[in-house]
Amino acid sequence: MKMHFKIYRFNPDVDQKPYMQDYHVELEPADKKLLDALVRLKAVDDTLTFRRSCREGVCGSDAMNINGKNGLACITDVAGLKQPVEIRPLPGLPVIRDLIVDMTQFFKQYHSIKPYLINEGPKPDRERLQSPEDRKELDGLYECILCACCSTSCPSFWWNPDKFVGPAGLLAAYRFIADTRDEATTERLDNLEDPYRLFRCHTIMNCVDVCPKELNPTKAIGKIKDLMVKRIV
Amino acid sequence: MVNRHLTGAHYGLRDWLVQRLTAVVILFYAAAMIAFLLLAVGVSFEGWKALFSLVWVKVLTTVSMLALLWHAWIGMRDIWMDYIKPAGVRIAMHTLTALWLIGSLVYMIKVVWGAQ
Prior knowledge:
heterodimer; A: about 230 residues; alpha+beta; Fumarate Reductase Iron-sulfur Protein, Chain B, domain 2; 2 domains; two-stranded antiparallel ribbon; 8 helices; B: about 120 residues; mainly alpha; elongated
């Protein structure tokens, strides 16, 4: 199958500004996913640059904007894509080269919510146990792979990436608030009670639309707000 | 001046909650007004005038307008916070919005409670 791609190219060492490059490539029957096609393209033009690692939707490296919607190349079927397939880097983050973006701001926000268990109690001999019901609260939260598809599709994150935590960070924040083994709920809610950090979310829900793991950051953000309301009424 | 990312103002929840509650008030008022005009007094100048000569309608209107203005304040401020980066310009936009809303409030009181 022959496919037509339009791919965002930018090499800051050479190019004055970014441009879209056309590629026509013959795919083999085994090339089922977009990443297969990109790897085949790279064999033709080795200057084409993108991140990938696990090639099975677990590492979150190959997040990109595919025909206008963020997603992971490795789990996107080529068969369903409208041609020419327009591929751009994730929106809203500085481009390092071609499809590679600088994720510093994204991870800064993620780190700002302290994405680790806080429990000052005595260390248990083996592990901190949870009841199956308590553990169930973490379903739909812990699966996040930090690919940044959600945060970079969020207009609020585009406008205020330095101040708004973004859907990925807020989903992670609720993952620890919801964890019965974590003792820092008050501090976590204090940390988020800010007109920018949490309340820039205007429930646009692009995050839910694009999440390749089918998670729901908007719902998690709603639950954080619910807890904040319960705290004051 | 040092360049720091400034967050941690520790407000926002009240505004978010108020925006939702005032929305309910506005919705209730709009539905009630439409229902009154269509079902009770009829869509006409006389019907409209009769409705607004009732004190409780004036009170309800004033409360709902206050809800609308508060709602609009939070919404407009959110827009400025989203898009306007320089703090000085943002403060100016906040001030102009507040003045415009206060002006609307004064004018509303004059219209609703003034001489018939």
